[in-house]
DNA sequence: CATCCCATGTAACCTGTTACATGATTAC
DNA sequence: GTAATCATGTAACAGGTTACATGGGATG
């Protein structure tokens, strides 16, 4: 019962279909919750069965119809309970960090390539988050929006995502530079 | 097959028992991989059965004996394969962020308390990581250690953890300040 | 005397991932 | 025509979590 609350929170500011929710979990929600589309479809079904969200058919032309979901009063109450509960420990799993941890004992050429790639993708995500922040606050300055604007929750979590990606990019760039300086050319010693 | 490589990487710089490994996964490895003690005991058994680590009984006085584990040549080869493979998408799950996402629609008093608590625990972890960095580099300056020191992998991942915790602390402090300014006193509107 | 730390697991359950399945429309 | 996007799932399997179990020694 954990994905459940992430989905409820994501549905607060918007109606979403499963497909749209999957997009939101790809960029935006991805800062703090990772989930696959299949999980989201399954979770939306369960949430609807439990009465925490309601679905509404949206007829579309030129593309398949879809069902969009909204949080119900019991759903909001469930979120309220979740918020009051002790948070679980934060959960990080990152392959690339495992590889850097092992950098002294394995070939670093691949690690360097992956660090470069990650730095580039972090830079892309930063740009995406900056766009999203602009969209969320509209005409307002950041200062004004943070004082009065709504919804502020998604804005604050997006800022977090931006800071995280900046940190990731900087760390990758720095780490790659350190490893390259230690082993000029990034070659793998053999034998 | 994912925890496996985190365990192998953690065992590279040291022999560890299951219990010690659990401690390492609590601070240090926690920056990039989350796992429970039960998982570690189970994984060590599997790794030993598969010949990727070897166990060695250490007789102790005044406390129970323990089995410490070392990575074998096949274990190192397995890590080498893992390093060459494409990394999986990074995995984050954070209850507190879900709660902030919902901040416009639920009571913020509890969220504020949890943000304060998280800021404090991030500050504690920063101190722990700073200590660990000092221990890892010994007498050397950071610059020298990054050029020649060993093992540099754990040092680099620890730096990442430090940066992450700093970012977490700053974001929590900032976010709490924003929410408090919007709703003076942090009270929950009812009705 | 109680509590914490060391030390290691098992068993039942829940959650998440991988692979597969379908089908229409739009953009190149 | 080929690929991408929209749209929604199922089924089998792998992985992770919760609860439980045990027992000695050190610390206050």
Automatic annotation (TrEMBL), chains A, B:
Coiled-coil annotated spans: none
Segments passing through the bilayer: none
Transcription regulator PadR N-terminal domain segment(s): 7-80
Record domain Transcription regulator PadR C-terminal: where: 92-180
Signal peptide: none
Protein name from the UniProt record: PadR family transcriptional regulator
Record InterPro entries: Tscrpt_reg_PadR_C, Tscrpt_reg_PadR_N, WH-like_DNA-bd_sf, WH_DNA-bd_sf
Pfam families assigned: PadR, Vir_act_alpha_C
Organism domain of life: Bacteria
């Amino acid at each position: 019962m954990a994905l459940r609350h992430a989905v409820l929170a994501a549905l607060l500011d918007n109606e979403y279909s499963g497909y749209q929710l999957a997009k939101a979990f790809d960029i935006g929600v991805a800062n703090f919750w990772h989930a696959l589309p299949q999980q989201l479809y399954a979770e939306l079904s369960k949430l609807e069965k439990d009465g925490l969200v309601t679905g509404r058919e949206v007829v579309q032309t030129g593309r398949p119809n879809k069902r969009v979901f909204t949080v119900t009063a019991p759903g909001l109450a469930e979120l309220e309970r979740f918020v009051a509960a002790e948070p679980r420990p934060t959960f990080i799993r990152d392959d690339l960090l495992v590889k850097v941890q092992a950098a002294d004992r394995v070939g670093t050429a691949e690690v360097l390539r992956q660090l470069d790639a990650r730095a580039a993708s972090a830079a892309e995500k930063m740009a995406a988050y900056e766009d999203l922040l602009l969209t969320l606050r509209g005409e307002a300055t950041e200062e004004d929006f943070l004082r009065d604007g709504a919804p502020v929750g998604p804005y604050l979590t997006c800022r977090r995502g931006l800071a995280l990606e900046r940190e990731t990019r900087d760390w990758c760039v720095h780490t790659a530079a350190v490893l390259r300086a230690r082993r000029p050319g990034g070659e793998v010693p053999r034998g």
